[in-house]
């Protein structure tokens, strides 16, 4: 009997445990499949994502029970740079201009009160200013960035931990406009949430009352019906008339300011007026009056039939002596900084009376046409299906491949060549250093080659340093020829015609197999009047300078009327036999004592146009296998001589230089360095290198980490580089020539 009782007791315990397990499983399944709200997808504005199953316990502030969620997590790192640290007062100014504090109260049966509360702080900017939002994200180290609409992105902080970081910042660096009242109300609501007041009806009514007093009020019909007798909280009265700080004003101007140029013509007279303006609602009239005190200039103007006031500065002396110096000392950020740079350029032309000449007036018209809404974005190269069977490659000069479609033997890929027009967007620019250095800002772009010949000349010197040559050839006894030559694969034939068009002289020759093309100038008149002045003004930076000096001396000898043919022949033979010293360095580096120790040393000698030209000749944007499952983006420039040149490039691009057995190289696969390189070279190059660069840069943003896509893309680029063209820009089948030779 006793044994029977023990057996029954054991059975009862086992059965109870079984029932408990079944009940737990049923509860789990009910929670798991209860609603689609159990699945939460969190997605950032970019990057590859994956689903991950994780648990979430009850949230004491939200009154939710435990459950399971799917979280979408990013598997790639963000690709923004953190080298620029924002001033905290600047951040507050930008928030005052573009920030928003919002309380979202909506029905949700999962909550105790039947209502859910989601507070959020938002900062929305145009897609052109995504880099600025990334700096804000890095500044707070909280929140996320989301793509809001087609043309905008939004920085958003929603959880209480992130919101407390925002509140702590704004308590220390306050707002000045009427938005401060919304912030104070928002902070009251967060305080109630922290003590769980929102989990009961009384606390919820307090929060709804606060929401009613905020900028958007009670827009929801559900809220109005559920709380018909709600009385809005008294809105805080902002009476602080203290003077705003300069950095705050820089941030506020980044969001709300406007730099523009009015140009009116009539009666054979042109009137140019520079205008700086900040517009606000009439409620912020006192705040706008404070700006007059801060800047020491300007006036207020009320817009007709609108509750809007403008703070305006139009007097040229105030623009030139107060506004421009102020924002040079306290720089604005983002896309608006480009308008400010153009604003300064026009002011400088007017200061020097250039606007009184036709040339100066035309330059002002050109600058004005690219400001504000006239500043277009680059349209992405049509490579949406880049890893598929079709390439679409654009040619921007007159030598286009008009709808020429050809198939390579043994290749199932087609190449569609179409003409397209590229407009440009100038991004943020660096601010002047105390040391006079070449401009390496992102405002430099390929359209500048046409605006100013000096820009093209610097680019040409860089390209020549990479792929050019100066030749002294003895044709016969007493007869000599000088050659300036640039050589490229016919794949990049367009660059040679671009150079010819810009110089207005020279000829392009293509070899019999259509593998290589040369741009040549051998007319001594053209060499003396065009080539020598360019290379005298902008010296070569590599050891190629030695060849140029010999070339120039040979020109002087041949042009000397006081020398006989025999004397010229002897002098040229002697000159031709001169050998370059093994440790030769171009005299262009004399200004830094032939040693580069920092970025300013590099930039004081090497211009961005030179570096772009040199990169078009010697640079490589490519994809490299790290292992059997990983392909990464790489950038490299290699030289046998001239380590000082590569060291300078390394400083400017923020990468390292290394010495190999037979050469020097600057190379990187570092993600942050690659992003900076994409930013540096964006919309700058002219030849086929720009096509390779755009494909490479696009894939970094779109396909980074995707082995299969990058492998196919690398194969496609290799096929692309096999293209050969004849002088009429017709595709040539080089494989047939090879078969004939075999």
Structure in words:
- α5 (179-194) packs antiparallel against α6 (201-213) and α17 packs antiparallel against α18 (565-576).
- It is built from 25 helices and 21 strands.
- The protein has a four-stranded antiparallel beta sheet. A four-stranded antiparallel beta sheet has the order 7-8-10-9.
- β14 and β15 form a beta hairpin.
- It is of the alpha+beta class and 742 residues long.
- The protein folds into four domains: 88-226, Roll (Endonuclease I-creI), CATH 3.10.28; 246-372, Endonuclease I-creI, CATH 3.10.28.10; 453-588, Endonuclease I-creI; 593-722, Roll (Endonuclease I-creI).
Q: Which labels suit this protein?
A:
742 residues, Endonuclease I-creI, 25 helices, alpha+beta, 4-stranded antiparallel sheet, 4 domains, globular, 21% strand
Determine the mean pLDDT: 79
Low-confidence stretches: 34-83, 376-436, 738-742
Spatial gap, N to C terminus: 102 Å
Number of helices: 25
| Number of individual domains | 4
Note the beta-strand portion: 15-25%
The assigned structural class equals: alpha+beta
Shape: globular
The CATH architecture of the largest domain: Roll
**Sheet with most strands: strand arrangement:** 3-4-6-5
Radius of gyration: 34 Å
Per CATH, the superfamily of the largest domain is: Homing endonucleases
The third-level CATH topology of the largest domain is: Endonuclease I-creI
CATH class of the largest domain: Alpha Beta
Main sheet record: 4 strands, antiparallel
Number of strands: 21
Organism: Orbilia oligospora
Protein name: LAGLIDADG endonuclease
Pfam family, one: LAGLIDADG_1
Domain Homing endonuclease LAGLIDADG: 92-189, 249-346, 460-555, 611-697
């Amino acid at each position: 009997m006793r044994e029977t009782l023990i057996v029954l007791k054991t059975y009862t315990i086992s059965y109870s445990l079984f029932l408990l397990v079944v009940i737990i499983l049923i509860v789990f399944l009910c929670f798991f499949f209860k609603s689609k709200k159990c699945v939460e997808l969190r997605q950032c504005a970019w990057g590859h994502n994956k689903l991950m199953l994780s648990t979430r316990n009850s949230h004491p502030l939200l009154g939710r029970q435990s459950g399971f969620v799917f979280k979408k997590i990013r598997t790639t790192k963000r690709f923004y740079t953190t080298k620029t640290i924002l001033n905290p007062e600047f951040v507050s100014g930008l928030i005052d201009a573009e920030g928003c504090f919002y309380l979202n109260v909506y029905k949700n049966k999962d909550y105790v009160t039947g209502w859910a509360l989601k507070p959020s702080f938002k900062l929305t900017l145009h897609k052109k200013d995504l880099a600025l939002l990334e700096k804000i994200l890095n500044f707070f180290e909280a929140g996320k960035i989301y793509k809001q609409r087609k043309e905008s992105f939004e920085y958003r902080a929603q959880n209480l931990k992130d919101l407390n970081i925002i509140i702590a910042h704004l308590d220390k660096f306050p707002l000045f406009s009427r938005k401060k009242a919304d912030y104070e109300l928002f902070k009251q609501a967060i305080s109630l949430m922290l003590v769980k007041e929102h989990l009961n009806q009384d606390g919820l009514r307090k929060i709804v009352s606060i929401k009613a007093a905020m900028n958007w009020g009670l827009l929801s019909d559900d809220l109005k019906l559920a709380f018909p007798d709600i009385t809005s909280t008294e809105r805080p009265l902002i009476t602080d008339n203290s003077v705003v700080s300069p950095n705050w004003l820089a941030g506020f101007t980044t969001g709300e300011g406007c730099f523009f140029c009015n140009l009116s013509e009539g009666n054979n007279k042109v009137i140019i007026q520079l205008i700086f303006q900040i517009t606000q609602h009439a409620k912020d009239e006192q705040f706008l009056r404070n700006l007059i005190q801060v800047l020491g200039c300007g006036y207020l103007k009320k817009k007709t039939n609108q509750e809007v006031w403008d703070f305006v500065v139009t007097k040229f002396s105030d623009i030139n002596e107060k506004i421009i110096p102020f924002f040079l000392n306290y720089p604005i950020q983002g896309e608006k900084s480009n308008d400010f740079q153009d604003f300064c350029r026009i002011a400088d032309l007017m200061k020097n009376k250039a606007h009184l000449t036709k040339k100066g007036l035309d330059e002002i018209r050109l600058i004005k046409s690219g400001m504000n809404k006239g500043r277009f974005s680059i349209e992405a190269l049509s490579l949406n299906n880049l890893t598929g069977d079709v390439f679409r490659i654009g040619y921007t000069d007159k030598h286009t491949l008009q709808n020429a479609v050809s198939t390579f033997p043994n290749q199932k890929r087609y190449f569609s060549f179409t003409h397209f027009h590229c407009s440009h967007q100038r991004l943020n620019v660096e601010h002047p250093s105390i040391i006079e250095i070449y401009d390496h800002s992102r405002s430099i772009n390929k359209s500048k080659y046409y605006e100013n010949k000096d820009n093209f000349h610097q680019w040409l010197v860089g390209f020549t340093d990479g792929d050019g040559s100066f030749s002294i050839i003895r044709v016969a006894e007493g007869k000599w020829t000088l050659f300036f030559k640039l050589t490229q694969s016919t794949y990049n034939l367009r660059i040679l015609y671009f150079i010819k068009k810009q110089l207005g002289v020279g000829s392009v020759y293509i070899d019999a197999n259509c593998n290589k093309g040369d741009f040549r100038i051998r007319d001594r008149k053209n060499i003396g009047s065009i080539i020598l002045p360019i290379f005298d003004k902008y010296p070569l930076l590599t050891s190629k300078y030695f060849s140029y000096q010999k070339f120039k001396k040979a020109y002087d000898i041949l042009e000397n009327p006081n020398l006989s043919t025999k004397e010229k022949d002897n002098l040229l033979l002697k000159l031709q036999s001169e050998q370059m010293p093994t440790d030769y360095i171009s005299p262009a580096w004399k200004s830094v004592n032939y040693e580069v120790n920092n970025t300013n040393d590099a930039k004081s000698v090497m211009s961005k146009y030179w570096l772009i030209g040199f990169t078009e000749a010697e640079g490589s944007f490519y994809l490299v296998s790290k292992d059997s499952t990983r392909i990464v983006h790489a950038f490299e420039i290699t030289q046998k001589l001239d380590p000082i040149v590569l060291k300078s490039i390394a400083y400017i691009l923020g990468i390292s230089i290394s010495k190999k057995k037979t050469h020097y190289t600057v190379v990187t696969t570092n993600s942050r360095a690659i992003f900076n390189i994409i930013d540096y070279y964006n919309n700058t190059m002219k030849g086929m290198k720009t096509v390779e660069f755009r494909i490479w840069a696009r894939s970094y943003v779109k396909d980074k980490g995707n082995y299969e896509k990058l492998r196919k893309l690398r194969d496609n680029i290799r096929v692309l580089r096999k293209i050969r063209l004849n002088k009429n820009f017709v595709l040539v089948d080089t494989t047939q020539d090879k078969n004939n030779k075999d």
